[in-house]
Amino acid sequence: MQSEFRLRRCSVLFVEPRETLDLDLAGLLAGGDALASRCRWVALAPHLGAEVEIDDDELAALGRIGETPWRRHSDLASTTRPEVLARLLDLGLLISDAAPHEAMRRRDDLVRGTHWRALSAVAHMFSRWRGTDVADDARITRDRTLADLVDEYGLPPPHRVQCGEARIDLPDCEATALDRLLRSRTTCRNFDSRSELAPADFAAVLKRVFASHAVSEPLAGVRVIKRANPSGGGLHPLEAYLLLRGVQGVAAGLYHYDVVGHALEPLALLDAATATALAERFVAGQTYLSGAHALVVIAARFQRTFWKYRNHAKAYRVLLLEAGHVSQNIYLAATELGLGAFITAAINEGDIEQAFGLDPLEQGPIAVCGFGIRARRCDVPEFDPLGVVWDESGTQR
């Protein structure tokens, strides 16, 4: 019977009071305000992946029902109207142990079992994009000049922070090959789509950035790896998923990189047009980046890190920091070979997840990097203040 099943609140739930402003002509004509404010409640539950609006009665009911103990529907119905419980169950904010609701229960169990910190789960799931083009986002500055930004926002914060007048000058260091490499490192926005990346260069970047240097087994059944970047707890949870469209001898398509075997694992082969369209979708319409010969999706296996740092306030931040380390290594490895590289966080995570078959609660894209052969001409502006890459005419040095 319906009254015999049990309910509890979903494991992670935040409710945001969101203001809606409407033009109030009646109020304006009566001498009052021209705008009328209305507050609505928006529920953010990571296992849903989409926000839902709830009313005051539903909000109150969620506040009375705990996330841990199962309670019989009949008991809850004595204090909460059945129609309120039914709607919250349909929305997925209440979880049922009944068979018809098994799919939603499994999604909620995944959040619980992965040991997500609540704030991190909400930030991760609700900052993802799907089908977004940066050209449609006024906050992305692709088509606005620096003068436009200053006119609209005023001057930016100072480029330099100085704390007091006292100074202790430090000795300079002798320039080395590392200094030359760091000075040559720039973000590339101009790739030569007519050329193909040499297999040796492509493999060298992947090996230097992602490959395991060693595998050890400090405890039976526990294997750890050493890679070229620091990693929280030494867990190395970041994976490389690739969209290739210009590597000599490798068919265009989607691949996963095996960090221990130093090998590509084909996931789906694509024709050239499909690969190009998918690359543009991955980087949210940034066509100057989608032209790279190899796009690398840096994806985090959350449970690898959260296994040790369970429901930890810093665990998600550690993953983001690690992605930054990895991206810098991509820049340096590519620069040493005379290649261009980029990283962007303006990505369509939802489209990437769909393409590679990733569940964002288990394995989610953090950023997209790319590398390849630079174009001879600088058609899209790049930041090269040292003039290392381009001469005054915009030709590659």
Automatic annotation (TrEMBL):
PANTHER family: NITROREDUCTASE MJ1384-RELATED. This is Putative peptide maturation dehydrogenase. CDD domains: McbC_SagB-like_oxidoreductase. It comes from the Bacteria. Pfam families: Nitroreductase. NCBIfam families: antibiot_sagB, SagB_rel_DH_2. GO terms for molecular function: oxidoreductase activity. Residues 182-372 form the Nitroreductase domain. Transmembrane segments: none annotated.
